[in-house]
Amino acid sequence: MILPALAPALSVAVPLAAAFLAVVAPRPRLLVGVTVPAMLAVMALAVLGVRQGGPLVLAVGGWEPPLGIALVADGLSTAFLVATALTIGTVLVVALPQFPIRQNETRAGWAFWPLAFLLWAALNAVFLSGDLFNIYVAIEFVTLATLALVALEGKAKQVEAAMRYAMFALFGSLAYLLGVALLYAAHGTLDIGLLAQLPAQDTASLVAAGLITAGLAAKTALFPFHAWLPPAHAGAPAPASAMLSALVPKASFYVLLRFWFDAMPEAAGAIALQLLGALGATAIVYGSILAVRQNRLKQLVAYSTVAQIGYLFLVFPLAGGSAEPQPWTAGAWTGSVFHAVSHAFAKAAMFLAVGHAVLAAGHDRMSAMDGLTRRMPMTAFALGVSAVTLMGLPPSGGFTAKFLLLTAAFASGQVLWAAIIVLGGVLAAAYLFRPLARAFLPDRGRYGTVPRAQQALPLALAMLSVVLGIVSAAPYDFLQTGRPAAAEEGLE
Amino acid sequence: MSIATLFTALMTTGGLIFFIAGSVGMLRFPDQHSRLHAMTKADNLGLGMIVLGAMAQAGGPLVVFKLALIWILAVAASAVTAQTIARATLPGQADPEA
Amino acid sequence: MTGAIFDIVLCLLILAVALAAILGRDLFGSVVFFIVYGLLVALAWTRLGAVDVALAEAAIGAGLTGVLLVGAVARLRRGGVVEPTPPRPLARGAQMGICVLAAGLVGAAIAGLDPDAAGLTATVAQNLEASGVGNPVTAVLLNFRGYDTLLETVVLLVVLIGVWSLAEDRYWGGRPGLRQHAKPGGVLATYGRFLPPLGLLAGVYVVWAGTDQPGGAFQGGTILAAVWLLVAMAGLVDAPPVTARRLRLTIVAGPALFLAVAVAGIFMGGFLHLPPEHAKQLIQTIEAGLALSIAATLALLVAGPPQRGAR
């Protein structure tokens, strides 16, 4: 089969071409109508190819690493590619009426489209790259597209939030780049697959690992680098927030995952792994407490992201340092990926649904939720379903994720992490209960509404996060395709 | 020591003296316009002497031509810059940055 | 010996200028020191034999970034912001501490590296023949790691869209930047007529020479952008409105051409594959397109978002 082999290149080329067209000939309807189905077809090809023949590897330009750059689509990258395609695909359709191009082109109505397609291309570039310097370029590309989307509302407050994000993100980029330069100087290659075969206990490698981790943690908004995230994500227009909160932190987390599990599995010291876990745990608790105290809907959803990002980092103490794979390694690793993907669907659905509630009410105070179950039942349902995933209740993907992480925590005897996971679920229920309870209250005053077809889209995305929990066996197996630390079956 | 080397050494030293004079002038002169004057005039001459000195070491006519071009462009640029800055700092100009 | 003394003095100067840029209390002064820093670093790259990097550092690191920073300071002053509030002593101390720690660790790491490691230099040299060009830096940038460069040129486009989207809504459709006021017969206007022929020649030459000597689309594009900006400052040309189709075609032409070549490669052996027998022409075509778009994008970045109405 030759077609699946094209999937990696097309995953980047198609959204890039769409972005160029959106700059020159702004026809959002046509572009979304062609690009989204085309990308879904490319994703189908990728999944098919990976399932049949294992990881798809493309040496760009025919130059094999270390000279050239390899694009690698294994189970992990394909999962992120597909999650991105489904999320952004839905977001773009929801965004169509919100960023229209009429007779007179407007600033945000024009700029949103190329930026959204460019962000898509950039995320795909990160997920496919097998080369640490290429990842730097791709992640910088993600950052800059994000920066522009954060500032898109154009008010002083959003520009300030964008500026603050820029400071954190640029610190992250520079630290990462410095680390990559040290690795190249020490080992003469930037390819992840080749690095994995080299010993990595020298000073340069360890300093590089520290720099890379610190830089990526800042970009992922891991506590204590989280301060930029809530104003940035809450201030952007809802469709932009959906992409930023659901996908952008996952890109840098994905690179961390690749780095610690694929490139340098042996460099991980126990203390570093526990530290990452502790920061993640702090993020879960602290982010949730802050979320409980928010009075603005979008702020609340944004603080929830700070908390949810914390779970991702539990993978390091639970599965890291895999010189010798333990029986629980695969479960913990897969659990964190499940969490990343189901959180992507749920958080995007939540931001889109909140965006609709805010559109209907004209403001984003808590009272925008009043009477939502009667006025806009589908939106209310979408919020409820995504809340189920965020709290980690069965049968959602969030439940599968937390179940896998919990099992690994008990199996490895690290009970403290298990306690944090359970506490995080309770806290999520606490901060999500307030807005959801108001949806059942009677409403006072005037509210607009949003067309039903539009309301259905966030609901579909929220349902996806539940479907992921119901049919978790197939994605579980798929994720193991091409995993380097070929652990045992794990704990099913 | 060949004549060419001697010439280069002399010219470079002379050029440097002019550069130093220009820099001292920029630091010591009281107002914007006289500082500009010291800076551009002295430096143009200083650069010219250094370029002449470098020409003596050049491998062929093409390099000599390029060195001459560098001097001409630098002189033209500094003249225009000086003029623009001077105009911007004239009394009565409200906003030097506009 | 003389070389070593020169290098040591240069290193000390770079450190001193960097410190002056960071510790300076005056924003404008810091920017000036930053520009000087860029030029000294360019000199250091030349000493290391990396002329390509030196050119890029001088043109983009010192020149273009310097212009952008000077413009930012001017804008802050127009907006009434004169100096930023200095960080509190405790915060400053913490920042310094972190920087010193990081620098120490990096220093220790570098001290442990093999000083004779050559990275991939030999591999690049072995494959230079098949790359179609004689300058190894261009071979890496446009062929071996052309995918990086493709993404980087798109990054420039992202930045321009980001800058434009900072415009006020009422000015959308207007021309980028402020109107320039220059006396028609004045010195600047005359210079704006005198320089372009030479400047264009230099810019195009640097792009063209890039295949076999130091140079290329980024460095050449910066020179071209500078020429255009000078002519614009002289009041002789004005940027088209941001909504103009021809302007938008110009900024995407380079990346789009690059992407088209990359995708066409799929039919000739793989994504971004440049067949050795046509590689040179293809690289020159891509470089020409990129130079055009890079020049336009950089010039528009300096001009800034539209700040005046459509007419």
Topology, number of strands of chain C:
0
Described by its quaternary structure, the protein is: heterotrimer
Radius of gyration of chain A: 21 Å
Helix fraction bin of chain A: over 70%
Low-confidence stretches of chain A: 486-492
Unreliable spans of chain C? none
Please give the order of strands in the largest beta sheet of chain A.
1-2
Most extensive chain interface and residues per partner: A-C, 63 and 57 residues
Number of helices of chain C: 11
Number of helices of chain A: 21
Overall outline of chain C: globular
Rg from Cα of chain C: 22 Å
Which structural class best describes the helix and strand composition of chain A? Answer: mainly alpha
Helix and strand run of chain C: HHHHHHHHHHH
SSE layout:
The complex is a heterotrimer of chains A (492), B (98) and C (311).
Chain A: H1 3-24, H2 28-53, E1 56-59, E2 70-73, H3 75-95, H4 107-128, H5 132-150, H6 156-187, H7 192-196, H8 203-220, H9 229-235, H10 238-246, H11 248-263, H12 270-292, H13 297-312, H14 315-319, H15 329-361, H16 372-375, H17 377-391, H18 397-411, H19 415-438, H20 452-470, H21 473-479
Antiparallel strand pairs in A: 1-2
Chain B: H1 3-28, H2 32-55, H3 61-88
Chain C: H1 2-23, H2 27-47, H3 51-78, H4 89-111, H5 121-131, H6 136-144, H7 146-164, H8 187-209, H9 217-233, H10 245-264, H11 279-303
Task: Offer a quick outline of the entry.
The complex is a heterotrimer of chains A (492), B (98) and C (311). Chain A contains 21 helices and 2 strands.
Which descriptors apply to this entry?
heterotrimer; A: 492 residues; two-stranded antiparallel ribbon; 21 helices; globular; disordered C terminus; B: mainly alpha; 0% strand; elongated
Describe the structure.
The complex is a heterotrimer of chains A (492), B (98) and C (311). By secondary structure, chain A is mainly alpha-helical. Chain A has a domain at 268-492. Chain A has helices spanning 3-24, 28-53, 75-95, 107-128, 132-150, 156-187, 192-196, 203-220, 229-235, 238-246, 248-263, 270-292, 297-312, 315-319, 329-361, 372-375, 377-391, 397-411, 415-438, 452-470, 473-479, and strands spanning 56-59, 70-73. Chain A has a two-stranded antiparallel ribbon with strand order 1-2. Chain A is globular. Chain B has three helices and no strands. The longest helix of chain B is centred in the last third of the chain and has 28 residues, at 61-88. Residues 94-98 of chain B have low confidence and may be disordered. Chain C has 311 residues and is an all-alpha fold. In chain C, α2 (27-47) packs antiparallel against α3 (51-78) and α7 runs antiparallel to α10. Chains A and C meet through α1, α4, α5, α6 and α8 of A and α4, α5, α7 and α10 of C.
